[in-house]
Design brief:
By secondary structure, the chain is an alpha/beta fold. It has five helices and six strands; from the N terminus they run ββββααβααβα. Strands 3-2-1-4 form a four-stranded mixed β-sheet, with helices on one face. Strands 5-6 form a two-stranded parallel ribbon. A hairpin with a 6-residue loop joins strand 1 and strand 2. The radius of gyration is 15 Å and the shape is globular. The model is unreliable at about 170-175 (pLDDT under 50).
Length: about 180
């Protein structure tokens, strides 16, 4: 049995849920995430799990601008295709953006742009696997499971345009 443990983390963009098991960090979601509605009953609350503490500390450093990447053991749960998309997204560096089409091409599936978008929306490791850095073909902000206001705030923060604490985390337009 490999139990999944979780904790909550306050952030400038609202609370986050962090979840891990013995394999690694399985999730980091904002409250109100389109595809995460809280821990299932078989998960247990355990902020003392070392990996959860390390993940929380690294996220706090990231939000404070002291960290631009993460050094965590990751174990997101998804299909082989989703895993490939998430690995490619993880390669997009701080302050950079890519299109869904560029990710599709990079994983050898140039016609799978919509599927890449769907896999991106299911990314369980927001910020750590920086799906906020993906844009539409024309550079347009497209969906973000945590809400477009958060996506705007994250991109502005990485561009040095605005501090995160000035952003309004409550944006329902991307969650409908």
């Amino acid at each position: 049995m490999n139990p999944t443990c979780w904790t909550r983390l306050p952030t400038p963009l609202g609370p986050m849920w962090l979840a891990a098991d013995t394999q690694g960090l399985v999730g980091a979601w904002f409250d109100g995430d389109k595809h995460f509605h809280g821990p299932p009953p078989d998960w247990r609350q355990d902020a003392a799990l070392p990996l959860l503490g390390v993940a929380a500390a690294q996220l706090q450093d990231w939000f404070a601008g002291r960290r631009r990447s993460f050094d965590l053991r990751l174990a997101p749960r998804g299909t082989d295709f989703q895993q490939a998309v998430w690995r490619e997204i993880a390669r997009v560096g701080w302050g950079c953006t890519r299109s869904y089409g560029e990710v599709a091409a990079a994983i050898g599936r140039p016609r799978a742009v919509r599927a890449v978008g769907a896999a991106t929306g299911r990314n369980p490791l927001t910020i750590i696997v920086p799906c906020h850095r993906l844009l539409g073909r024309d550079g347009a902000l497209t969906g973000y499971a945590g809400g477009l206001a958060r996506k705007r705030a994250l991109l502005a923060f990485e561009a040095g345009e605005a501090p995160l604490w000035s952003a309004a985390p409550d944006d329902r337009e991307a969650r409908a």
